[in-house]
Amino acid sequence: MNVYITKMNGVSWNPLQSRQRMTAEIAHGLDCREMGIFCYNGNAESEESLRTRLDGIVAGLSWGEDVVVCQFPTGNDSRFDRGLLERLKVYLVRMIFFIQNSEELVRGSIQARIPERIKLYNQAEALIVPSLSMRQFLLDNGIRKDMKFVIQEMWDYTIDKNTIYSPQFRKEIHFTCNGGINGLNNWNYAIPLKLYADSGIQGQNVHYIGGLSKGELISRLSKGGFGLVWYQDEDTRQGMEYDVSFDLARYLAAGIPVIVPAGISNQALIEKNHLGLVVDSLEAAVTAVESMEKSEYQGYIQSVGRFAPAIRKGYYTKKCLVDAVIAICRRDAGEIAVPAKIYDSGEHAFTYAVLKESYGDNLALSWNYSGKADGFLIYDTSGKLVYETRNVYQHYFLMKGCGKEIGFTVKAYVDTLKGKMILAESEQVCLQKERYNHASVSLIIPAYNAEEHIARSIDTALAQSLLDLEIIVVNDGSTDHTQIIIEWYAEKYTNVIAIRQENGGPAAARNTGIIRAGGEYIGFLDSDDMIRPEMMKRLYEAIKKNGSDIAITSAYYIKNGKYQAFIQYMLQEDTVVDTDEFIQLHYIKGSGFGVVVWNKLYRSSLVKAHLFPVLFQEDEAWIPYILSYTEKITYLNDCSYEYDRTTYNSTLAENLEKRSIEERFHTYKKAVTFYLENGNPKRVGLLKELAGERLTGKLRAYGYSEYGEFWEQIQETF
């Protein structure tokens, strides 16, 4: 058996060709043979010429014996790629694809081409992909379930160690990437930025070095400072979640620490090996560099010094190639090895797990985990790893293309020097018959043009550990496929009720749900948010135990994959809190954030007697109004509601931003007027105090005199 590796040729200067050449050179050290592929203008090449060229490329292969590692892309068009694979199949060779353009695959501009790429990749026995997230992306988009994967994790950057210096402590940043930097027209920081490529960045402290040879560039970088890996636009930022950066390898090979954006695919590797700074913004990066002491920098240099030799000698590439060849020779290869033994300290446990049918012939797996972890692994009943996530907040995963007879297990793990250590394992869950009898709680979901996310929201509602839960989805005049989706759930599940009405806004939709609700208590869920599996049960038990009118939970604010706890109160949990005290502490004297309807469970009789006003941004009017009629409140700091701004309707946000200050004032005026005129007369003084605090605050914030004048009118009227 001989192993061949393809290599792009014929391009005067191309980063992809440089990477493929380096990969092929490293492969030579493993006795791999080179299969050169020249880049041609495919449109100008006749079928006969293409056949002749392909025959020449594969002429050295032995029939039925050899392995070919195809580096993709080849630099040619899809017609060439299809022809090459057909020739390789004629020779009955075994194929491994080394995918090196992952960033392009996830860009919105080429989504239509994904099926073509998937069809191409499915002809391989094994795929070398940059990251676990890319593996999952391919599986979600149609890659064979039995495909064997090898995770690249890091590029190599082969150099002669004699060309590098010992890095010195320098407060400067190097940038070797082509293209601009997102959000920056000018570099106005005290830290100098040194450019080695055409990046379009300007500024007083920008130093343009220009293009250098590989040796000159490494020598200059190795003198000290930080290497910056950053994104040019939203497409490249998203691509970094799946791909691995060649510039990252270059900086580390030069021996200097790096600065990377949070969310990059190898963030965990950088953090755990202390290779540099992972930051949310360039401002944060500059601040960290400015405040850094020499001893801290030397700590990074020592860590990079331990890590870099493997990159300089090509060991990441060697490992990928060896693992891929072994994978196609072994039936059990391609799975991520995790020890079966569970280290049980008694502090980590899965308290709940459930599997439900989801829209689109999918399965929705949900779980609740208590304790610390570095990530979760999901296995099917055969023991095959289906999914891995390092999102320790995750509690829901959508299984696509799985049979309904299959079951799943979730395992929580932490990373150790010897690999992953399992801390806890859920029970194996399969699809089960419904056990719904009656409604103790009614959960109302208003939906308008929510086809992209409504299934996920309903899935998390169905996953609740509270069995006596009624789910009422009100389609508020949607013009997309929302109705089709919610009707599917209503037909599948006896506790899901689908209601359709003409568009009237969220308040009207909630009122429709309230009127229909049969539960003793009522909750609300927005169609683009999620709730954690124990939320309804925890709130229900707390409100019953304490005899309260409302039970409240804290929440997570999610944006760009980051979770931030909010709507948290300095209150004793799971006990009775007087309503007047709550309003004083958290709406008048406090920040008042949390004027939202969805993180609460309400006594049904209370809500049915006090419906929503049909106003714009009705939360501002209804929350003070409904609170004025309550006596007891209970609070749980569970963060069990997930307010997901990743899926937020950007058009709605833009429309809100475009509203003039006058329009915003009149919207708020209607809200205040409503709760003052309709609130509990016994608490009109408290509501008036709340209005005064809010209006004077807005007057200070916006300088719009109408707020002050309205407050004077309130003082005279109420």
In round numbers, the mean pLDDT is 88
Q: How large is the radius of gyration?
A: 30 Å
Number of strands: 29
State the CATH architecture of the largest domain: Alpha-Beta Complex
Query: Alpha-carbon distance between the termini?
Result: 91 Å
How many domains? 5
CATH topology of the largest domain: Spore Coat Polysaccharide Biosynthesis Protein SpsA, Chain A
Uncertain residue segments: none
Shape: globular
Task: Give the CATH H-level superfamily of the largest domain.
Answer: Spore Coat Polysaccharide Biosynthesis Protein SpsA, Chain A
Q: Would you state the CATH class of the largest domain?
A: Alpha Beta
Number of helices: 24
Q: Per DSSP, what share of the residues sits in E-state strands of 2 or more residues?
A: 15-25%
Helix content: 25-40%
Structural classification: alpha/beta
Task: Characterize the biggest β-sheet.
Answer: 10 strands, mixed
Domain Glucosyltransferase 3-like N-terminal: 2-154
Organism: Schaedlerella arabinosiphila
Protein name: Glycosyltransferase
Keywords: Glycosyltransferase, Transferase
List keywords for this structure.
Glycosyltransferase, 6-stranded parallel sheet, Rossmann fold, Immunoglobulin-like, transferase, alpha/beta, globular, 10-stranded mixed sheet, 718 residues, 5 domains, 24 helices, 24% strand, 29 strands, Gtf3_N
Please give the structural blueprint.
Layout: E1 3-9, H1 15-28, E2 33-38, H2 47-58, E3 67-72, H3 78-90, E4 94-99, H4 102-105, H5 114-121, E5 126-129, H6 132-140, E6 148-151, E7 168-175, E8 193-195, E9 206-208, H7 214-221, E10 224-228, H8 234-240, H9 246-254, E11 258-261, H10 267-272, E12 276-279, H11 282-291, H12 294-312, H13 315-329, E13 349-358, E14 362-370, E15 375-380, E16 385-389, E17 396-399, E18 408-416, E19 419-425, E20 441-447, H14 454-462, E21 469-476, H15 482-492, E22 496-501, H16 506-516, E23 521-524, E24 530-531, H17 535-546, E25 550-559, E26 562-566, E27 577-578, H18 579-588, E28 600-603, H19 604-608, H20 619-627, E29 632-644, H21 650-658, H22 661-678, H23 684-702, H24 705-717
Parallel strand pairs: 1-2, 1-3, 3-4, 4-5, 5-6, 7-8, 7-10, 8-9, 10-11, 11-12, 20-21, 20-23, 21-22, 25-29
Antiparallel strand pairs: 13-14, 14-17, 15-16, 15-18, 18-19, 23-28, 24-29, 25-26, 25-28, 27-29
Helix pairs in contact: 2-3, 9-12, 18-23, 20-22, 22-23, 23-24
